[in-house]
Amino acid sequence: MNLASYIGLLHAGEDVLARSFRQLAEGHGDEPDVYHLCHTLAKQCDEHGRRLGPVVERYGETPDAEPERFHADAMSESRSGPLGLLRDLQDLHALVGFVDTTWTVVKQAALALRDEELLAIIDDCEPQTKLQQDWLSTRLKQAAPQALLVAS
Hints:
It is a single chain. This protein is mostly helical. The chain has a single domain, classed as Ferritin, core subunit, four-helix bundle (Ferritin, Up-down Bundle), CATH 1.20.1260. It is built from four helices and no strands. Helix 3 (81-113) packs antiparallel against helix 4 (116-149).
């Protein structure tokens, strides 16, 4: 069974998201909405990882064998200024998309296995990940005109 590979991707992905949301918050602390909401979203990711703990114990988590194809790196530093915020939001949006599609893949396996515990976790966590992606999309749209059209 290869489910352990995707459990590992999901577990690691939530950790990467939590660290990246915190990096975005700290790097763009002058944007109050970014600072506060990113800390809230990081806590959601921490909780997702915690909830996956029993699943990891049951199915295991195999380290990613293809890092060049299936890999997500945490943001290690933030860029500065309005254009930097836009790029950081875009990077984080891509990470959330990766985690969202990983939830989708794991859900399909959970349905096939009829794993009610895993399905309950997914039913709680997956919608929050989609909301994270929606917020990032909205914030990207808000930041784009300032970053791209106003002289720095």
